[in-house]
Write a structure and sequence with these properties.
By secondary structure, this protein is an alpha/beta fold. Helices cover about 35% and strands about 15% of the residues. The chain contains eleven helices and twelve strands. β2 and β3 form a beta hairpin. It is globular, with a radius of gyration of 20 Å. Bound molecules: S-adenosylmethionine (SAM). The site of S-adenosylmethionine has 24 residues, from β6.
């Protein structure tokens, strides 16, 4: 039995080392150091081994620790928390999910949405709190090209351009919008808002302020986010969309959470209900999408691919919407 525990701990340690090297590096020195420390900490690894595999993720552990401690953890406080309040920590990790809602991803989606025939009816699957449903309310600054949003109090999303991008003069007209999520977060519930803010990593510039401003925007007129599974409940939400609008189903940072063997089923469902399907996901996640040219340099990391209808890659984008590179021939 002891060797099995050692194997399990080694596997979890590798997940944390990979997270440190490939996800936190360059974004959050504090979480890079914390993930490396967890990888070498027998007590925290033992605690993680008591959880189901899908609940051992660094993002979930660090957000739960931040929620309980009231501040981002370091390894000493994390080890202490896992020892003294293992039940509270595991209870929170079992009850919650990684549902980071990054409004700046709207800066990636906007140029593709603006090319469609208005008015638009939007369905976002994996919408979390619905902050990425408010594409028309935010303002934008694409390296000096400014677009005024429909809510003058909403934040301005800044996005660097890497080459020419087909930018609109104004946001598209949105006639209707709805989200679908396994576990919708409610922007009007303080506890959900606190969880959302705990999911932001320390050291990531203005993300916390942007999140707070986007939540304030959503609270003025909250978008509907329905509880359900994108694999089974999309047709019911689509049936509520008004006639006479272009029905767009989209998602960002969601399909990685769906088992690879089930993604084709989702693709078939979307094609059956949507006029247009937009995906903004990591490479290799959307089934059947042709490969795209790799990142232009090491600073582009593993970019997201913005694609239409599961067939046509449109652009490469930072996973958090900070830069956008349109692919040749797609403007
Ligand atoms: C990382 S968040 C992304 C939120 C938002 N799309 C964004 O870009 O900011 C992923 C969301 O997908 C949801 N999700 C994962 N699997 C799902 C499924 N099978 N059906 C519906 N929602 C799902 C999660 O609950 C979570 O809120």
């Amino acid at each position: 039995m002891a060797w099995r525990g050692r194997d399990q701990a080694a596997g979890i340690a590798e997940v944390y080392r990979t997270f440190a090297r490939h996800e936190a590096r360059g974004r959050s020195p504090a979480y890079q150091a914390l993930a490396e420390a967890v990888a070498g900490d027998a007590a925290v690894l033992r605690f993680l081994g008591t959880l189901p595999p899908e609940k051992r993720q660094p993002n979930l552990l660090f957000a739960a620790a931040r929620y309980l401690l009231g501040a981002p953890a370091d390894i000493t406080r994390l080890r202490d928390l896992a020892r003294r309040n293992a039940a509270g920590l595991s209870g929170l990790m079992l009850a919650r999910r990684t549902q980071t809602n990054e409004p700046a991803r709207c800066a990636t989606l906007l140029p593709a949405l603006a090319q469609l025939t208005p008015p638009l009816a939007l369905i976002e699957v994996g919408a979390s709190a619905g902050l990425t449903l408010l594409v028309d309310r935010y303002s934008y600054d694409y390296a000096g090209h400014r677009i005024a949003g429909r809510d003058p109090r909403a934040p301005t999303l800044r996005c660097a351009l890497r080459g020419p991008v087909p930018l609109p003069a104004q946001p598209p007209v949105i006639a209707w919008r709805a989200g679908l999520d396994l576990s919708p977060l409610d922007v009007c519930r303080d506890d959900d808002v606190r969880w959302l803010s705990c999911l932001v990593w320390p050291g990531e510039g203005d993300r916390e302020q942007r999140l707070a401003a986007a939540i304030a925007t959503a609270r003025r007129d909250p978008p509907a986010v329905h509880r359900g599974d994108l694999l089974t409940d999309l047709p019911a939400v689509a049936a509520r969309a008004p006639a006479g609008a272009t029905l767009v189903v989209y998602h960002s940072a969601v399909l990685a959470y769906v088992a690879p063997g089930l993604r084709q089923r989702f693709a078939d469902t979307v094609r059956g209900v949507a006029d247009v399907w937009l995906s903004n996901e990591g490479p290799g996640v959307v089934p059947g999408l042709p490969p795209v040219p790799g990142p232009a340099g090491p600073d582009e990391g593993d970019p997201f691919v913005l694609a239409r209808d599961g067939r046509t890659p449109l652009a490469l984008a930072d996973g958090h919407g900070t830069w956008l590179r349109w692919l040749p021939g797609q403007a």
